[in-house]
Amino acid sequence: MNAALFFKELRLNRTLFIVWAAVISSLILVTMAAMPTMLNNSKGMSDLMKAYPPELMKAFSFDAASFSSPLGFSVIYNMIYTMLLGSIFSISITARTLHREQAERTAEFLLVRPLGRGTVFASKLAAWLVLLIGINIVVYAAGIGSLAIFTPEGFSWSIRDYSVVSAYALLLMLGMGGAGLLVSVLARRARSLTGPAIGIVLGFYLLDIVAKITKDYGSIGWVSPFKWVDIDVTRQGYGLELWRALAFAALAVSTAVIAALVWRRKDILT
Fold first, then answer.
1. Given this model, what pLDDT does residue 202 score?
2. Nearest by Cα to 11 from 116, 106, 130, 95
3. Is the dihedral of CA 85, 209, 80, 25 positive or negative?
4. pLDDT at 270 over 50
5. % of the chain surpassing 70 pLDDT
6. What is the pLDDT of residue 262?
7. CA–CA separation, 12 and 193 (whole Å)
8. With 70 as the cut, is the pLDDT of residue 21 above it?
9. Are 155 and 69 within 8 A, CB to CB?
10. Residue 109 φ then ψ, to 5°
11. C-alpha–C-alpha distance, residues 111 and 263, integer Å
């Protein structure tokens, strides 16, 4: 890894990191401020939910238990959208990190220096991982802090269970980031990849929603990494399941390895 290139990548993505961290943290704090009212009126919310179609409730993982538990409320109103926005942040960085060198025609200059392609790839990969871990730490702190501040008397929550669902969020973002690396090296045209990368995340998210509400095609939802996340924090014995963690690890590692192999052989002048 090259330290100069590593820190350059951090500087280039600094503003993006600050904006996304602020947006996601603000969303968490604003929605969690409504939690005391919702929890204290959980019966009324449960009655209100009965008026909505069951398919709609399944699509967004709404259930009565979500409105009677601080963790359930946090997952439904925050964590699902944190995963979505965090995945967009992750894939936005990786989709442009290597392709930017070709789009801005700086790859030729970069690679004629005493830097191998493997060094360039490793430096950019390390910068992305630091940014991803950093935003997850910020978001985790915002989530824990908002639960501590806004949980009303008479209710309790488990920091362990919140840590587990936060780990799922990190794994999902890793998987999406790996997909972004693959998009970055496969693209041949010198144009922005941010739009297509965001489209990939939204496509997977919508596929998961459609699978939840469609009985005949429910199994197709497993194509989406969002389906691999277990957000049922109110379930007895909730925890991080090994097969789910391995699935995310396989997605992240396989896409990163394929991206590295393509990058080493790619003709950057085309």
1. 92
2. 130
3. positive
4. no
5. 79
6. 86
7. 16
8. yes
9. yes
10. -65, -40
11. 12
Residues with Cβ within 8 Å of 56's Cβ and at least 6 positions away in sequence, in order, are: 62, 213
Q: Please list, residue by residue across 118-153, b when 16 or more beta carbons sit within 10 angstroms of its beta carbon and e when fewer do.
A: eebbbbbbbbbeebbeebbebbbebbbebbeebbee
Kindly report the three-state secondary structure assignment for every residue of the chain: CCHHHHHHHHHHCHHHHHHHHHHHHHHHHHHHCCHHHHHHCHHHHHHHHCCCCHHHHHHCCCCHHHHCCHHHHHHHHHHHHHHHHHHHHHHHHHHHHCHHHHHCCCHHHHHHCCCCHHHHHHHHHHHHHHHHHHHHHHHHHHHHHHHHHHCCCCCCCCHHHHHHHHHHHHHHHHHHHHHHHHHHHHCCCCCCCHHHHHHHHHHHHHHHHHHHHCCCCHHHHHHCHHHHCCCCCCCCCCCCCHHHHHHHHHHHHHHHHHHHHHHHHCCCCC
CA neighbor of 229 nearest in space, from 164, 180, 133: 164
Q: Are 13 and 93 in contact (CB under 8 A)?
A: yes
Predicted model pTM: 0.86
The rounded distance, in Å, linking the Cα atoms of 65 and 67 is 5
Token pair 């179609």 is found at 53
Three-point CA angle 180, 138, 63, nearest 5°? 80
Domain chopping of the chain, boundaries: 3-265
Burial of 54 (0-12, 13-18, 19+ CB in 10 A): exposed
Question: How long is the chain?
Answer: 270
